[in-house]
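TASK: fixed-backbone design
INPUT:
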């Protein structure tokens, strides 16, 4: 009982400190951004903001979470190693924010940091025994060789880091989503803490979530500041590393999937982005408008509602991970199917004649064009009916010619068009 109250006290301390420090330092990060010229201007169609916004807010998240990690104590050696890696990853992101380094250089830096973490002992060394492999430990987990463990660990850290970075496309999306994911993982670490020794991981995840929550009032639409690569790379790295440190990989068949389920939305979004760019014969590092949040924006939900919808899906997946960790598989499956349904609604287009390849390759521009054509057809039909009524004619059986894609593009290119026939 004493142990529980002590841990809860430390969790509350970490949350309050991280929220307070992040909230207080966010205005300071805005001033520093203006002084350094770290401003995100709407220079291309991919950006949804209409005016220049400071993008140095990651400093507030970094300082808030670090303060919470250092002050409440309770850290083990691996948490300290993770903090050192977090400092390196934040520094890499800041360098990109200030100097706009090449994507390849940034990727190499991420590989280096992930490799350093592996050499320092933060590793994925086993997975659950899915297929009855013979090389297992006492808990029936498959032991990975050094080479395989290195590749999986580095891919996990770099992959999740970039997945969170790709989520940072709408006001408040990355910060709020990471807070939800971190709190879900923290709760899992808490409920299994005494048995698996994961209480330090729980406190660390709460610190990361608190840094995001303190920053969110300045980042939610309309945003006063962006977190920049310094914030997004740091958050992605911390989520990835802390999920590796936490001894949540249990001997059950799907226990190793708990972190993956929690992070399912950014993982899916990143996977679809890589596949989409590959099918287009483009670089997988090329930015586009095909992410899940871009689809929601193109459907007309606006920034706030799109972000809230994404929060809901991320939250459902977090609950699925919690249920899986408690071996409540039937309940988890029901919620998982609901999450898949909503993801399908976002991804699947309104036009039923599209094949799978076209669905994967489509982006927000394609959706906006389809919606524009649909609007023009609706407007043409509405005005035709009004004209028929004003002339006293009966409604004809035949339907007027539907506007073509080429006609819509021509109309869209004309400035000042009012949709008249």
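OUTPUT:
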């Amino acid at each position: 009982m004493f142990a529980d109250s002590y841990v809860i006290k430390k969790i509350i301390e970490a949350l309050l400190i991280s929220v307070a420090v992040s909230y207080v330092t966010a205005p300071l990060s805005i001033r520093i951004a203006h002084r350094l010229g770290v401003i995100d201007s709407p220079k291309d169609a991919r950006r949804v903001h209409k005016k220049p916004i400071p993008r140095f807010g990651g400093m507030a998240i970094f300082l808030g979470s670090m303060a919470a990690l250092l002050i409440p104590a309770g850290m083990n050696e691996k948490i300290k190693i993770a903090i050192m890696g977090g400092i390196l990853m934040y520094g890499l992101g800041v360098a990109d924010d200030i100097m706009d380094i090449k994507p390849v250089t940034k990727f190499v830096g991420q590989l280096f940091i992930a490799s350093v973490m592996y050499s320092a002992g933060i590793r994925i060394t086993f997975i659950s025994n899915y297929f009855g492999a013979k090389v297992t430990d006492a808990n029936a987990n498959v032991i990975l060789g050094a080479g395989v463990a290195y590749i999986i660990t580095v891919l996990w850290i770099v992959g999740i880091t970039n997945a969170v970075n790709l989520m940072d496309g709408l006001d408040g999306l990355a910060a709020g989503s990471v807070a939800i994911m971190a709190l879900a993982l923290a709760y899992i670490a808490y409920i299994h803490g005494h048995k698996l020794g994961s209480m330090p991981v729980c406190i660390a995840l709460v610190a990361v979530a608190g840094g995001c929550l303190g920053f969110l009032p300045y980042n939610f639409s309309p945003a006063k500041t962006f977190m920049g690569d310094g914030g997004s790379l740091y958050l992605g790295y911390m989520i990835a590393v802390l999920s590796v440190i936490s001894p949540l990989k249990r001997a059950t068949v799907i226990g190793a999937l708990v972190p993956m389920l929690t992070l399912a939305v950014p993982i899916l979004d990143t996977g679809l982005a890589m596949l989409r760019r590959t099918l287009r014969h483009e670089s997988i590092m090329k930015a586009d408008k095909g992410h899940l949040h871009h689809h929601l924006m193109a459907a007309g939900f606006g920034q706030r509602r799109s972000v809230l919808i994404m929060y809901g899906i991320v939250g459902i997946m977090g609950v699925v991970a919690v249920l899986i960790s408690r071996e409540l598989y039937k309940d988890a499956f029901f919620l998982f199917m609901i999450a898949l349904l909503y993801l399908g609604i976002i991804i699947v287009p309104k036009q039923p004649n599209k094949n799978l390849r076209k669905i994967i390759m489509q982006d927000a521009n394609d959706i906006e064009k389809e919606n524009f054509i649909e609007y023009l057809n609706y407007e043409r039909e509405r005005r035709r009916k009004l004209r028929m009524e004003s002339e006293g004619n009966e409604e004809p059986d035949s339907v007027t010619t539907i506007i073509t894609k080429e006609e819509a593009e021509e109309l869209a290119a004309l400035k000042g068009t009012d949709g008249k026939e």
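COMMENT: The two ends are 76 Å apart (CA to CA).
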